[in-house]
């Protein structure tokens, strides 16, 4: 990918940038950006957006110096924010950057890229305010344009969220807990010893970071659990970042670490988990729809897989949590959602005790994106954020020894593969070369909404594919989902099977239509095409 982007962006006569992807940037390690502290060169940051819609997102870059946060786009300098990195067990302090430089990447083109430049400049670093909380402050707050979050300093926990546009206060708390594990627990079985999780620590230290682009409260729960609650200035999403591990075993207890969100939502034992990011499945505590369920494991028996999101709701309010990885989830108490973050089992017949690189145990870091909305607005919010998490931005770094103006003259600094973005309820989940040919691509389009979603977007959408791509379309053929045969073959098989078992004619309108280059996609449909360009 790095080599491809370098070739695509370089004009005739320009030099190919040596782009590098930093997979450990989330733990504050990225050699190209950290080199700014000791060199006078500029670092090019190319941001690729795989989503078929324009998006804006806050970017975080590790840097070694307080002066290494001068950021500019193609139109000139842009606002940035410098903050100290949160100290967690995930950091390798011998190589990790001590600071993080943040800026807002605005209007990133759909399935395209934009270019930014980082350099040293004493005068432009917009530093965050960092302050520890004081015991005489009963409540501390952070806020953005959407939310005021209140933290109780006696418990060091979130206690309320005030929605600024409506001035509505919503009771909400979040805590880190653990279940002690039965000796029969193993990597495939979850068997807690008790039905109530235990508190990891009541001595939580708070630290507040405020700035022009985002504010956050950092929670140091113990020497192996920490987290932060962040509000980005123009975003309604509340971000919870967590780091857990290495889980200690000096007490001889195997542990299953969870985070639990508590609200006053009257969920009545019902919650919803996604099915591979598509439709939501209703889950009811201590219940199975197809047989009489006898409760023998009140905790493990109510855990379900969450690939993308989980939500609870009543007639007025909904709490949704979106994850950056598959996790186990449940709602053991009405109004609450708990998510399993990490596990370490010692006394099991089949232990789960990976030592990690340093032999002390695994450390994991992750993120939960929280959405609090009226129930009739939650579907729109979930689908939008879900797409951004699934199609995360790809950041490529390269050091250059020429001026920014020279780079702009010899490189394409912004472009999109599309002529226009897709509608908000359609995702392009596949765009790939087909049969190793330059002019043929495999495309899959997916409707994001389900028929029963409470949204105006949960309706069929018609798209003219000849108007989506910049390249001229020569031919278009719809294929099966796996792209191994034309869809017409599948439909004929379906028709014959239908006629063998039904007395009514086969309904060919169940699927969205395709007329020339215009395709109609119904809720939850995924349509697959082979497209040939000039």
What name goes with the CATH superfamily of the largest domain? Golgi alpha-mannosidase II, domain 4
Number of helices: 5
**Structure class:** mainly beta
The share of residues in extended strands comes to: 35-45%
Instruction: Specify the CATH architecture of the largest domain.
Output: Distorted Sandwich
Keywords, separated by commas or semicolons:
534 residues; mainly beta; Immunoglobulin-like; Beta-galactosidase, Chain A, domain 5; 3 domains; 10-stranded antiparallel β-sheet; 9-stranded antiparallel β-sheet; 5 helices; 42% strand; globular
Summed up, what is this model?
This protein has 534 residues and is mainly β.
What do you see in this structure?
By secondary structure, the protein is mainly β. The protein folds into 3 domains: 2-127 and 393-416, Immunoglobulin-like (Sandwich), CATH 2.60.40; 174-389, Golgi alpha-mannosidase II, domain 4 (Beta-galactosidase, Chain A, domain 5, Distorted Sandwich); 426-533, Immunoglobulin-like. The longest helix is centred in the last third of the chain and has 15 residues, at 487-501.
Which helices and strands, and how do they pair?
Elements (H helix, E strand, L loop, with lengths): L1 H8 L10 E2 L9 H4 L7 E8 L5 E9 L6 E4 L2 E3 L1 E5 L14 E10 L3 E8 L9 E4 L6 E5 L3 E6 L4 E7 L4 E13 L17 E2 L5 E6 L3 E7 L4 E8 L5 E7 L10 E9 L6 E5 L5 E5 L19 E3 L2 E5 L3 E7 L3 E4 L5 E9 L19 E11 L3 H13 L3 E7 L3 H7 L3 E3 L9 E8 L6 E8 L13 E4 L8 E7 L7 H15 L12 E2 L2 E4 L4 E8 L1
Antiparallel strand pairs: 1-28, 2-8, 2-28, 3-7, 4-5, 4-8, 6-7, 8-29, 9-15, 10-11, 11-12, 12-13, 13-14, 13-19, 15-16, 16-17, 17-18, 18-27, 19-26, 20-21, 20-23, 22-25, 23-24, 24-27, 25-26, 30-31, 31-36, 32-35, 33-36, 34-35
């Amino acid at each position: 990918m790095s080599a491809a982007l370098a070739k695509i962006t370089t004009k005739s006569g320009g030099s190919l940038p040596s782009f590098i992807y930093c997979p450990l940037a989330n733990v504050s390690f990225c050699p190209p950006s950290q080199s700014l502290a000791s060199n006078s060169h500029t670092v090019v940051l190319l941001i690729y957006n795989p989503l078929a819609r324009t998006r804006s997102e806050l970017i975080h870059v590790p840097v070694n110096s307080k002066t290494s946060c001068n950021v500019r786009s193609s139109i000139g300098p842009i606002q940035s924010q410098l903050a100290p990195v949160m100290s967690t067990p995930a950091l390798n302090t011998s190589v990790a950057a001590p600071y993080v430089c943040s800026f807002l990447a605005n209007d990133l083109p759909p399935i395209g890229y934009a270019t930014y430049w980082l350099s040293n400049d004493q005068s432009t670093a917009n530093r965050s305010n960092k302050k520890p909380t004081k015991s005489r402050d009963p409540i501390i707050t952070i806020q953005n344009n959407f939310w005021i979050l209140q933290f109780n300093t006696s418990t060091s926990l979130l206690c309320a969220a005030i929605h600024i546009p409506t001035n509505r206060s919503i009771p909400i708390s979040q805590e880190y807990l653990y279940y002690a594990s039965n000796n029969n627990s193993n990597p495939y079985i979850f068997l807690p010893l008790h039905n109530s999780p235990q508190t990891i620590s009541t001595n939580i230290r708070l630290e507040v970071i405020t700035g022009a682009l985002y504010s956050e409260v950092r929670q140091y729960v113990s020497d192996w659990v920490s987290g932060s609650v962040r509000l980005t200035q123009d975003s309604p999403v509340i971000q919870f970042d967590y780091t857990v591990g290495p889980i200690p075993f000096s007490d001889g207890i195997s542990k299953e670490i969870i985070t639990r969100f508590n609200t006053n939502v009257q969920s009545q034992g019902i919650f919803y988990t996604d099915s591979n990011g598509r439709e939501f499945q209703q889950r009811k505590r201590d219940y199975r729809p197809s047989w009489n369920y006898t409760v023998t494991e009140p905790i493990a028996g109510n855990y379900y897989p969450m690939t993308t999101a989980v939500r609870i709701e009543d007639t007025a309010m909904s709490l949704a949590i979106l994850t950056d990885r598959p996790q186990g989830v449940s709602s053991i108490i009405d109004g609450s959602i708990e998510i399993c973050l990490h596990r370490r089992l010692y006394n099991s017949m089949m232990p789960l005790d990976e030592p990690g690189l340093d032999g002390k145990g695994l450390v994991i870091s992750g993120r939960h994106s929280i959405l609090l909305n009226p129930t009739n607005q939650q579907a729109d919010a979930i689908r939008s954020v879900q797409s951004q998490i699934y199609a995360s931005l790809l950041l490529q770094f390269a050091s250059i020894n020429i001026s920014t103006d020279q780079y702009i003259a010899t490189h394409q600094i912004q472009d999109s593969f599309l002529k226009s973005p897709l509608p908000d309820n359609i995702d392009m989940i596949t765009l790939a070369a087909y049969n190793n040919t330059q002019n043929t691509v495999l495309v899959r389009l997916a409707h994001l909404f389900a028929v029963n979603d409470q949204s105006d977007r949960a309706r069929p959408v018609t798209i003219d594919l000849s108007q989506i791509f910049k390249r001229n379309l020569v031919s278009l053929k719809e294929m099966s989902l796996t792209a191994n045969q034309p869809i017409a073959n599948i439909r004929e098989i379906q028709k014959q099977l239908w006629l063998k078992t039904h007395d009514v004619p086969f309904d060919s309108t169940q699927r969205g239509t395709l007329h020339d280059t215009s395709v109609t996609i119904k809720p939850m449909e995924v349509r697959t095409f082979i497209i040939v360009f000039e």
